[in-house]
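Worked problem 6 (solution included).
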Amino acid sequence: MIFKSVTIHNLFSYYGEVCFDLARPQGEAGNIVVIMERNGYGKTSFLNSVKLLFGGVTKELMAGMQRGSPGTQKSFVLGTQERWGILNHKARASGEARCGVSAVLLDETDQETRITRSWDLRSDD
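Solution. The predicted structure is:
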């Protein structure tokens, strides 16, 4: 499968809904995408969002993002006094509580499959 697009909503460093168009140009056969930018512009947030989409909150993801003890899945998602959690800090400050990531994938016949993982953090469940 090939990524056609990835949409991130209020996750990590992404505020609001940000859609990345990864579709190959019309008539092209290639499927290589290069993600580059200066430090602090969301490359790691992009990759961690994709990891969340496919794997959920894994121990490896938590360990890679938290120093010391990775804590629980719940504290990773909701945050703690030391850490914001997965919800973008501007979204949290403006009272928003929903975040998520989705992707549109293409198979070898160009059939689309959409996958989504989202959270509603209005409660602590």
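Discussion: Residues 2-120 form one domain.
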